[in-house]
Amino acid sequence: MCGITGVFAFTELGYKAMELLPKAVAALQHRGPDAEGLFFNGPVGLGHRRLSLIAPTAAANQPFKSDNGRYTIVFNGEIFNYKKLRKELEAKGAFFRSDSDTEVLLQLYARERQECLKKLTGFFSLAIYDAEEDSLFLARDRFGEKPLLFYKDTDKFLFGSELSALLKLGVPREVDYTSLYQYLQLTYVPAPATMLQGVKKLLPGQSLYVRGSRVQENVWYRLPFDGEKAMQNPLSYTQQQAKLKHLLQQAVTDRLVADVPVGAFLSGGIDSSVVVALAARQVEKLKTFAVGFPEQPFFDETRYARLVADKYDTEHTELLLSNNDLYKNLFGALDSQSEPFADSSALAVYTLSKHVGQEIKAVLSGDGADELFGGYNKHLAEYRVLAGGAKAGAVKKLKFLWDVLPKSRNSFTGNKVRQLQRFAIGAGMLPQERYWLWATWQKEEEALALLAPEKRVAAQSRLYLARKGRALECVSRKHYDLNHVLCADWRLVLPNDMLMKVDLMGMANSLEIRSPYLDHRLVKFAFSLPASSKIDENLQKKILRDTFRELLPVKLYKRPKQGFEIPLLSFLQSEGRCLINEYLSDTFVLSQGIFDVQQVQRIRQVLNSDKAALVQTQAWMLLVFQYWWRNYIA
């Protein structure tokens, strides 16, 4: 796990960026505190920061050069099957001078070029310079666990693990208002866009080949999903369970590969509990970590995590947080975002990672299970829309009631009313419209109204429609069912929200977060299953619960999904109030010229009323953007 960055100069002017490379590497220090390396050769400069988990010796430091000097690699990630690949290479006459997965990857690339990526089990972003061809090859893993951003103009090509590195290399600091419009709906900017014009994110499963001044994009991996085939899966439910058990156990075993201790996040939900149960069989006194909010019981899951920790006798730590604790960690979390990211649970992940990172370097997590097996509330809602029936019809007819009743994410009753209202609205829509409604935090017209009038035309452009259309591809296909919604989440929500969150917040604290549910063999199998194996009227993530039922405490088997959230409203109305007053003030907004002053005023006013829950997310999105804008643009 590391941070990578680099320059490929096309002209004399482009060479000037090479002088800035040490600063770009320094901007990634948090991603790799154990070692630093630079490589220069003609038009190419590569930089690396290392977090040592496999082969933690100087012999494995990067940039890493092949014996013949032709290839040089900078690599961020882990290859869990590197020992098996190494044996295969040695059988073909290869010689190794280190014990690292990096060297295995480089030798494999030298023999098989891009095709080698298909043999890798793990996650990565990488850049390999070929001195003979004077070319640069870059690639990102199958599902976007590790980030890679890039920028190209007539003089140079730049890349880096985070936007902070590219900013140090001198990319233009011009806001992309289409990206801002998306952000105001989703709380993040979906790839391949970023918040800056001209800077792109490499898509999951994509590679780049740079030679001369040309950049060629390729797709080396596509999500193996065929909706019709999944509906006709020939395996019985018992056979499906047997295969899932084998694949997930193997995925957990693989992700325990390291030359340092590996622990686990334990949220109290099904996903991380299953991972801990499987890992505890292999690691004596497995270190597990949970975060809770004792002052806000609605958001606290620590009692469920404790049931699992006790059952498997793990070395368990509970990090119990107050609003004041969140405030103490707020600026660290915001400073780690070189692009605005307003999933508020990132603050809890940052705080937990800061604590855990002082003790160990890697943890397992349960990320991806909801998107594979239908764990979100919107998945159950989609199931009920497609199933129809009297209950769904009654909820639609009672929309007038849900519209007037109090709604909030901060209590059981208020949250239920909020969900019923969204169901009633979405049930009358086409699948694409419904998916977008349930994937976003505010409607398009609400997000547009937040922008200053002169910015709205730039935001709602053909480019926006093209980006939105890409996000909706999965739910625009024929023979539509719940699996198509999971496909859309896998391409939109998972890489751009969930995986971005754990990478940014984990690596801000030099902590690697690994999820067994992202093993590509498990993903392929899960997307071959019919929707009926994943969800029914009474149970979400059905096959996951049924397969591992005997490993779970009884209270967890039918426990409904609880999203991993923080008490955001309470925080904004207490310790966070001073920040709202500063960053959302009329003076700030007017001088900035991006947002509509009256709309921001309205959010401030509502935040101080009994309807504050209606605007808490909008206020947080604005606060995060404003903090970023002041730091990086103003």
From TrEMBL:
The keyword Ligase belongs to this UniProt entry's keyword annotation: yes
Which gene holds the coding sequence for this protein? Answer: asnB
- InterPro entries per the record? Asn_synth_AEB (IPR006426), Asn_synthase (IPR001962), ASN_synthetase/amidase (IPR051786), AsnB_N (IPR033738), GATase_2_dom (IPR017932), Ntn_hydrolases_N (IPR029055), Rossmann-like_a/b/a_fold (IPR014729)
Q: What is this protein called?
A: asparagine synthase (glutamine-hydrolyzing)
Member of which family?
Belongs to the asparagine synthetase family.
Residue intervals of the Glutamine amidotransferase type-2 domain: 2-213
Q: Does the keyword Glycosyltransferase apply?
A: no
The domain of life for this entry's organism is Bacteria
According to the UniProt entry, its GO molecular function terms are: asparagine synthase (glutamine-hydrolyzing) activity
